[in-house]
Amino acid sequence: MPVPELFPNELRPALPPLRSQEGICDPVVYVRFFTSSGVIWYVTEGSPDDDDFVFFGLVVGPDEEWGEFSLSELTDWARSGVPIERDEHFTPERLSHVMSRKG
User: What is the mean pLDDT of residues 74-85?
Assistant: First the structure.
């Protein structure tokens, strides 16, 4: 089953590079990925890495955790039957605003 392109090349220049928001208490979230099971990835930064793309952001599922994750990891999940989507209507805004609407 083909997997839709989660993060097209034309969106990549709008995402600040890794560590560019480091130390900012209320970083800007630029991309939101989600699953129907309720896991959400709030992307604050990202950079190309060899043949992949590495993101940094807040992952919200059973727990909330900041960390790095890659486009290939998300794509592998999607290929294994866990549908992952990018919120095409999401507009960049501060994490505090995003989280105040969560739930």
Answer: 86
